[in-house]
Amino acid sequence: MPFVDVPDGYLYFEQHGAGADVVLLNGGLADVRMWASTVAWLAETHRVTTWDYRDTGLSSPSYRAHDEIADLAAVLDAAGVRRAVLVGVSDGGRRALGFAHRHPARLVRVGVVGGSFGEFPDSTAAEEAARVVMRAHFARHAEILENDGIPAAAENDVQAWCPAVSGDDRRLLVGLEIANSRVMTMPVHHGAELEPPVKHRFAELTVPVSVLVGGQDFDGTQLWGHRLATQAPYADLTVLPDADHMPMFSAPDGFRRFVTDVLAPAPATS
User: Which letter, b or e, does each residue of 84-96 get, where b requires 16 or more Cβ atoms within 10 Å of its Cβ?
Assistant: First the structure.
């Protein structure tokens, strides 16, 4: 089982397949198991690396501040990945863009799926209205967590973020939230990204960025996707009307097309 030591902890990663490198970054309350269906087809043509952030999966818990970008760099070094495409979902999109800002030479492209960045700086009226809805969800989530416990809070959270996911996929997402519940119960998040955060610095990105948003996701997430696609210099936007926050489950065919396009070689220039 491949682990890499990092300051004050260790990180777990997996690698599958052979070919050009693609690295997948989990949603914030998930772990490498969320990628099983994606790895099944992606590893047929690429070398796929997945990994667990601190406080999730098989990686170590954190008790003090750590550098999220340095953690990803440590995984790439240990996995022998010199240059890759990153595909990050939810909080993984934020992490991927932070790495792209600091280490652009190590990346071919970044795919950001349902990127989560929190409050909008200099928000528009639409963005502020969308955040009001999301704050209400977070308040309700905290209430359920306190009164009814982790399983009930996980059920409520998955329903809110992933209304288009059902059956065994829904059970998987709820189970992942329960398994990684340390993240939802920690009073302080110890991971540090760029300063100022990457959400203020989209215009500084030099790596091509492909953005995917789902039409069934929170309006706030969709608006973040449009903001990123507008502000990043080399960005494109894909909207999947039937997808929610986890399109690999809610719209798997559309998600596969998006990832395939992200991984396609750039056209030659004369």
Answer: bbbbbbbbbbbbb
Please give the single-letter amino acid code of residue 9. G
Q: What is the mean pLDDT of the chain?
A: 97
For residue 125, give the amino acid letter. Answer: A
How much of the chain, in percent, has pLDDT values that exceed 70?
Answer: 98
What pLDDT is recorded for position 270?
41
Q: In whole angstroms, what is the distance from residue 52 CA to residue 156 CA?
A: 23
| Residue type at 208 in one-letter notation | P
Sequence letter at residue 172: L
Could you give the CA distance from residue 163 to residue 157 in angstroms, rounded to a whole number? 10
Taking residue 17's Cβ as centre, other Cβ atoms within 10 Å add up to 17
CB contact at 8 A, 70 and 191: no
pLDDT(267) > 80: no
Q: Where are the alpha helices (DSSP H) in the chain?
A: 36-42, 68-79, 91-102, 125-148, 150-161, 167-179, 182-185, 219-231, 247-250, 252-263
Q: Which residue has the tokens 């693609």?
A: 22
Q: What are phi and psi of 103, to 5 degrees?
A: -130, 60
